[in-house]
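Run log, item B.
One chain of 273 residues. Sequence copied directly from the ordering sheet:
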Amino acid sequence: MDQQSTAEPTARCRLKTWARRLSFWPSRSERLVAAQTAQSTGQLEFSASLRRERSLCNGISPWLAPLATVVTQDIALPAYFKQVQVLGQERLPLDGPLLLAPTHRSRWDALVITHAVGRRVSGRDCRFMVTLDEMKGLQGWLLHRLGCFPVNQARPTTATLRYAVDLLETSHQLVVFPEGRIRTDNTPMQLRQGLARLALLAASQGVSVPVVPVGIAYGHGRPRFRDRVAICLGEPLVISGQGRAAAVAFNQRLAAAMLLAEGQARIAIGLDG
């Protein structure tokens, strides 16, 4: 080995030694510990996310979900309703995190929403946040395997909210009914603050989530056999600010947008206009 090649490693070693003394060049052992810590942190975060999912739902069944799509979209909806009309589909974001905020008029709503924005349209499954009561019995068994997960409306748990943010961070589309109940009459719309708080929580984690207001209208207050139904997607909204005041202000904007979308759906099936 010649003198020049021997001198270069020696000079490099001296440089690293001085750099370590000045605290800006980590040693090999320090770099190894940092890498192991980062890997461990990532594994812990993934493990925590997995535990949250397993405690709330069973994910999406690879065999049940396609079967449910055929039964609901190709059989149930066409058999019961005379026509299902979708308005504003071009407003639907096809990638990135998304919250859908529909009016809640009937138990048919979930099937109509899936028809308008589900996998066949957007390439993504709809992940519904539902009540604890809906996750019981045979219905609960099915919903567990179709990607739905429960929320305690009176006291939402940290695990539920964190899992919802997990889904948004991985670019899922979530469906949350802001009213929290089915409204079959024309009483004033009242929104709970759960969706707004979820959007604020996601924003605090660096996830900006567009919220699409959705209006659904049926030929009758309680859908009848061979009724017409229309669903309208409004312009996406984005929440801003922090705290309760921001949630209240956003709910006012969202309620107005949902009513506008529902009005357009009603016109489409001849109820207004």
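Observations after the first pass:
- The longest helix spans residues 28-56.
- The domain at 58-268 is CATH 3.40.1130.10 (Glycerol-3-phosphate (1)-acyltransferase).
Flagged for discussion on Thursday.
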